[in-house]
């Protein structure tokens, strides 16, 4: 019998007010540069990339995330400026800090151990924190136009990170299905 596999990932989801502003930027990319794929997920910072997992065992993912999050302290995260991964990705920059790096490393080790015998990741992942606002369906021509317009734009946010989101793909878009809360 075939396992009931679903696609998941773990991320930091900014607070609602920042999500709203970042979604407006994504909508601008849709309307001006014909790139809407980034709207298929809430604004986020990916900490553990998409992986396949048996959805019948989803509670194991939730328990693992909750246990891990209960060991993390709340910290402040800054977002600043725009960056790109040519030729198709434009993002809001994430200021790296020790807390972010430590959480990502612990999360990565824990989830890799959990997944080792259960499933496989989609591919290798180098941690380069960012919040994507346009990608995949952004044409090279529109990337050039958009990047010319956005590379010097100023944008700054700061927020308290108090939880991590577990996201699941529903066949059309990504949804936050659980949030693991930090200890303090």
What does this structure look like?
Helix content is 32%, strand content 33%. A hairpin with a 4-residue loop joins strand 7 (163-169) and strand 8 (174-181). It has helices at 16-33, 58-69, 98-115, 140-150; strands at residues 5-12, 45-54, 75-85, 89-94, 130-134, 156-161, 163-169, 174-181. The protein is an alpha+beta fold. The chain has four helices and eight strands; from the N terminus they run E-H-E-H-E-E-H-E-H-E-E-E. The strands form two sheets. The protein has a four-stranded antiparallel beta sheet, covered by helices on one side. Strands 5-4-3-6 form a four-stranded antiparallel beta sheet. The chain has one domain (5-181): Alpha-Beta Complex (Cyclic Phosphodiesterase, Chain: A), CATH 3.90.1140.
Summarize the structure.
The chain is of the alpha+beta class and 184 residues long. It has 4 helices and 8 strands.
């Amino acid at each position: 019998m075939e396992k009931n596999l679903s696609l998941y990932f773990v991320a930091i989801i900014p607070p609602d007010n920042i999500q709203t502003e970042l979604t407006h930027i994504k909508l601008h990319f849709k309307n001006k540069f014909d790139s809407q794929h980034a709207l298929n997920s809430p604004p986020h910072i990916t900490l553990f990339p998409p992986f396949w997992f048996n959805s019948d065992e989803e509670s194991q993912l939730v328990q693992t995330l909750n246990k891990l999050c209960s060991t993390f302290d709340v910290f402040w995260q800054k977002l600043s400026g725009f960056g790109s991964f040519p030729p198709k990705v434009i993002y809001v920059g994430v200021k790296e800090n020790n807390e972010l790096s430590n959480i990502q490393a612990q999360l990565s080790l824990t989830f890799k151990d959990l997944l080792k015998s259960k499933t496989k990741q989609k591919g290798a992942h180098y941690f380069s924190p960012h919040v994507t606002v346009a990608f995949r369906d952004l044409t090279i021509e529109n990337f050039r136009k958009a990047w010319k317009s956005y590379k010097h734009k100023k944008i700054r946010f700061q927020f308290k990170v108090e939880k991590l989101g577990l996201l699941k793909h529903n066949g059309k878009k990504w949804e936050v299905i659980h949030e693991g809360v930090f200890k303090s």
